[in-house]
Amino acid sequence: MGGKIKNSNELEFVVFCIENVATKLGVEAERVYQAFTEQSDILHGYIVPEYEVLHTQSREYIVDDLIDVMKENGVEV
After folding, report:
1. H-type helices in the chain, by residue range?
2. Does the predicted TM-score (pTM) go above 0.85?
3. What are the domain boundaries of the chain?
4. Which of 31, 37, 43, 54 is the most exposed place for a label (fewest CB within 10 A)?
5. What are the Cα distances from residue 58, in Å, to 22, 43, 74?
6. Which of 46, 44, 38, 48 is nearest to 68 (CA)?
7. Exposure of 76 by Cβ count < 10 A (0-12 exposed, 13-18 middle, 19+ buried)?
8. If pLDDT is split at 50, 70 and 90, which confidence band does 2 have?
9. Cα angle: 58, vertex 3, 11; to 5 degrees
């Protein structure tokens, strides 16, 4: 796996995901980033490869989906 961020749109989307999940969970964005990169492969194994589909969804859907993915992978912040 391991999708690489290809352009500024994907980078902006990754930042959007991290910041909005952090807001919903009431934690610092840095903790979500670590959860997505150090505790799991959610960033490069899910968010980046699924960018084309995910970025067309609503903010609420994206945040809830990512929290579900975190739970499925046993990732906590």
Report:
1. 8-25, 29-37, 42, 51-54, 59-72
2. yes
3. 8-72
4. 37
5. 16, 18, 24
6. 46
7. exposed
8. low
9. 50
